[in-house]
Amino acid sequence: MKKRMHVGLFMLLFYMIFAVTALPITAKADTGPKPSVRIQFKNMGDDLCYGTLLSKEKCTGPARVWDGTARNEQLYDLDRSIWKAFVDYKDPDGYYFLQRGWTVSETGEIAWTYYPPEDFKILLYYPETGTFVSSGSYERYAFDTYYTVDMEGVRIGSVEYNEDLSTNERINAYRSYNYRMELLSLAVRILLTIAIEMVVGLLFGFRQKKQLQILALVNITTQLLLNLLLNIIHYNAGPLAFITSYVFFEVIVFALEAGLYCRFLKRVSPKKENGDFVLYSFIANSASFWVGYYLATVLPGIF
Hints:
Shape: elongated
Strand order of the largest sheet: 6-1-9-10
Structural class: alpha+beta
Number of helices: 7
Strand content: 15-25%
Mean pLDDT: 82
Distance between the termini: 35 Å
């Protein structure tokens, strides 16, 4: 029996991986969440500082290079003098200023949350000294990309803006995606889901040792696979693709779990009919889905 159950669980893995690789999961609708790039700065100091991301491409979303006309000017929250300083900056590698800027000394970050560039450089401008400080090139590595820059030891006052010095990398960023929080979130979701579905099993009268073993084996396996794949989707494609895939995968999990229960749980539950196992699978998966959905609205950092 265990061998056949393992075959069934293997088929579940096959179908879910096939769905991830075969289905388009990137959210295309403009009303959905967009990729983001956030650069956080540590030890900034007290000097007034503005920042932007230089792009390898001339446009991304609505942001684009200034074409020299007033109609194309996009000042956003920048003063015109600051905007003009960024426009006049010439990157030695041909990266472009797309007319987006942030007052980094106030916010402590650059948060490009609507169509950020794929390949970019970090550029800081200190208007009190006319100094530019730049980085090497970086890339978006996840749907929500995080970098951190430690400004400790960067000698801003000694850098003059000229063509020679602007070729040097002055600041370095490191990836700072919170993998620890993602792993904690994954573990909590899996444990809570399994607990809910086991409680529903008890309510359905599955209390014998062999019955509980089958429920535990099926639920642990399916929830591990489901949540690992969903985390991969969220990391690469974002929350809208996550939700769409979540619903799709839950249907697959419900159908396959129901089939496994009808085949294997029935052997140790002679008083139950196939309809009982299908109903259990439906209610258990529905309960875990809606509890997870509710908690996602009140604890977005975990769910």
